[in-house]
Amino acid sequence: MEEKLAKHYTAFETILEKAKSDFDLKWTKKMVPNAAFKDFVLKKTLGTGSFGRVVLAEHDKTKTPYAIKIMEKAHIVKMKQVAHTISEIKVLDCVKFEFIVGLEFYFKDNVYIFLVMRFFNGGEMFSHLRTLKKFDEPLSKFYASQVIMAFEYLHYLGLIYRDLKPENILIDHVGYIKMTDLGFCKKIDSSRTYTLCGTPEYLAPEIILSQGYSKSVDWWALGVLIFEMCAGYPPFFARDPMRVYEKIVSGRFSCPSHFTRSLRGLLGKILQVDRSKRFGNLKDGTKDIKGHDWFKEVDWDSILNRKFKPSYVPRISDPIDTSNFDSYEEEKLRVAPKEEYPNEFKDIVVQTSLPT
């Protein structure tokens, strides 16, 4: 087992080195919008949030389905998220990994910013977890292994993710995951950041305590996700967010009786308030996690190469089946005779305006 894991690390390191070279090259290049609104036909809203909405669309010529994140510039400016949004586009445009949603096209019109990504019709992990109540440990392990490799990829590039949760994990048509929403993703390399952001139940203690943090917060969030997948609820929860924060900082949580001993042991090592003892953040990095007893049966290369057959696959009837997504009331997009906030978004060239 140790020999097989060592071979995996050798091969994966080569993949990461090539990925970083590609990322660094693209990171230095100027962003150039590569599509226009007239290229797509909007179909149905897939999700909404403080950012705006995600809409299923088809490419007018190829008929390829896409998910388009539509963000209103006025809202971005009002929320003081201009730099944040530009950074999200830059990161999405530069990352390319099997278990992370990347950017296919992006553009703006007079009112909105459009980010076009591949459509994964299995829906959000959150929906399936809500339906099944909880995942068994083998399925949770399968999902967690992909998150781990996605984090290894991002961290190798000098990025931290900061927004892991079931709502930000999509399932594709064969059951593999795609981490989405890189809005909180930040390039920090070897430095620290102090921004308070993320979902309360998934925040690491160092974020809450404003101690300055780096990649350690993603490993804490992994522990929260593994717990929630296996239990059906997060390890730290309360109606009042401040009470949630108190529980997180204390680091005390209780595992359900059905958790195996190896799972309890792993969670105790990852959900560790002391960063100097937290798995993923020690000198051996992810080797401590991947080599843990709970992951001993995982064939990392098989999963990375999508050769492992998952035990659960969403029901999908066709490429544009949206049955795995909730329904939302549709809203007509706003139009404007001239470009709004041209200076704030001058780095993104206007391609076209919405048809009136």
From TrEMBL:
Alphabetical UniProt keywords: ATP-binding, Kinase, Nucleotide-binding, Serine/threonine-protein kinase, Transferase
Residue span(s) of domain AGC-kinase C-terminal: 296-356
Group of enzyme by EC: transferase
Protein name from the UniProt record: cAMP-dependent protein kinase
EC number: 2.7.11.11
InterPro entries xref list: AGC-kinase_C, Kinase-like_dom_sf, Prot_kinase_dom, Protein_kinase_ATP_BS, Ser/Thr_kinase_AS
Organism: Timema podura (Walking stick)
Catalytic activity: L-seryl-[protein] + ATP = O-phospho-L-seryl-[protein] + ADP + H(+); L-threonyl-[protein] + ATP = O-phospho-L-threonyl-[protein] + ADP + H(+)
